[in-house]
Design goal:
The complex is a heterodimer of chains A (222) and B (135). In chain A, 27% of the residues lie in helices and 23% in strands. By secondary structure, chain A is of the alpha/beta class. Chain A has two domains: 117 residues, Response regulator (Rossmann fold, 3-Layer(aba) Sandwich), CATH 3.40.50.2300; 70 residues, no CATH class. The longest helix of chain A has 17 residues. Chain B has one domain: Lumazine/riboflavin synthase (Rossmann fold), CATH 3.40.50.960. Chain B is built from four helices and four strands. Chain B starts with 7 loop residues before the first strand and ends in a 6-residue tail after the last helix. The chains are: A alpha/beta (222), B alpha/beta (135). At the A-B interface, helix 1 and helix 3 of A face helix 2 and helix 3 of B. The complex binds iron/sulfur cluster (SF4) (2 copies).
């Protein structure tokens, strides 16, 4: 999933203060799963904005709506009638959400209510970590099912570097050296020698380095 | 400001706080009239939003009265409630509101005195803070 973190509420209050009718829009996708942008969080943020308005003697109307997904135009369309009653939107989906809303409704001001962090998963309830950097050509099978691009601080494909220290990365003792984990796993699988086999350099043309990406699936396009 | 009567919503766990209330009644002690109570089967059921809504309606303070940490019959009810109160404190603080306007208390079923004292303590604290919203 895409993991996000709520923006400090004071920041949201500040960026929206010129507006008196706000619609907080959530998303039932990734951000619901990471407890930051679903219907529950929409209600909490909307309530906090109302409380803040009242306290500061400002009239603010704050509406609440949660879409199935904000990254699909057919769901974003659902806002058409609702938006007539509002001046601005606070989207608490990942960064895709506010952009899709702004694109579909160019006359409406749209603010991001969360800071999108990474593609990852839940280690346990309340703890998430990064797993994929979207390089466009997955190679985790070479590395015991572990992604060194997303999980090595230097994205090394031929680690570990000299900073690996007792299983920890040189940037912090709180960060595992993923190459320590990769080597251990390859040893456990009896595949250590595969790590020294020659592989041609990875092409980064499919990653962000090749410019903004777009994908067309001819069989799906109508 | 001396005649300011803070309006307070108190969430009570039916297992301990409500029994404490019955005992307090027996002792002819009752809650001050500025406190409105909401009884819940377990304080763990109280969500962050439940704690925020009264502030949205303009009350001056909110508190949760639940069991002692080790006597919640649903194991973790009161510690869940305490975590949510903490979250609401952070939210209030982030919008420039005194976090002391919300609190959590651990009561025991047998303690009628503590039940009323909690209410008085909260009332005094809020009286010192003054009204939540401009008149
Ligand atoms: S808008 Fe973002 S958070 Fe919502 S489903 Fe799409 S990718 Fe996930
Ligand atoms: S190799 Fe590329 S696609 Fe695969 S997990 Fe790593 S960053 Fe993601």
């Amino acid at each position: 999933m895409i993991v996000a973190r709520q923006k400090p509420i004071e920041e949201i209050v500040e960026m929206t203060q010129a507006f008196h009718k706000l619609l907080v829009v959530g998303c039932k996708g990734c951000v619901t799963v990471c407890n930051v942008g679903g219907a529950k969080e929409v209600a909490i943020l909307a309530s906090a904005l109302r409380i803040s308005g009242k306290r500061n003697g400002r009239e603010v109307v704050v509406g609440e709506h949660t879409l199935e997904r904000q990254c699909d135009p057919e769901y974003v369309d659902e806002l058409k009638d609702i938006l007539e009653d509002y001046e601005a939107v606070v989207s608490i989906a990942c960064g895709v959400g506010p952009q899709f809303i702004a694109e579909r409704y160019p006359a409406v001001r749209v603010f991001p209510g969360v800071n999108t962090q990474f593609m990852g998963g839940a280690e346990e309830h309340g703890i998430w970590s990064e797993r994929c950097a979207g390089c466009g050509t997955c190679v985790v099978h070479y590395f015991g099912g572990v992604c060194p691009i997303a999980r090595c601080s230097k994205s090394l494909l031929n680690g570990p570097c000299g900073g690996s220290n007792n299983g920890k990365c040189e940037i912090s003792n709180d960060v595992d050296c993923i190459w320590d984990i990769i080597v251990t796993r390859m040893m456990e699988q009896g595949r250590l020698k595969e790590l020294i086999e020659f592989k041609p350099p990875k092409s980064w043309a499919t990653a962000r380095d090749g410019g903004p990406r777009r994908m067309i699936r001819e069989e799906l396009v109508e | 400001m001396t005649d300011f009567k803070p309006q307070i919503i108190a969430f009570y766990c039916s297992n301990c706080a409500s029994s404490a209330a019955t005992i307090a009644e027996g002792m002819k002690k009752s809650l001050p009239e500025n406190i409105r109570t909401v009884h819940v089967p377990c304080s763990g059921r109280i969500e962050t939003l439940h704690l925020l809504k009264p502030f949205e309606e303009g009350v001056d303070g909110v508190y949760v009265a639940g069991c002692q940490e080790d006597s919640c019959q649903y194991i973790s009810g009161i510690s869940k409630a305490a975590r949510r109160v903490e979250q609401v404190k952070k939210i209030l603080e982030s919008i420039g509101i005194e976090p002391e306007r919300i609190d959590v208390f651990n009561l025991s079923a047998g303690k009628g005195d503590a039940f009323v004292d909690t209410a008085l303590e909260m009332t005094e604290k809020l009286r010192a803070l003054g009204p939540m919203n401009p008149a």
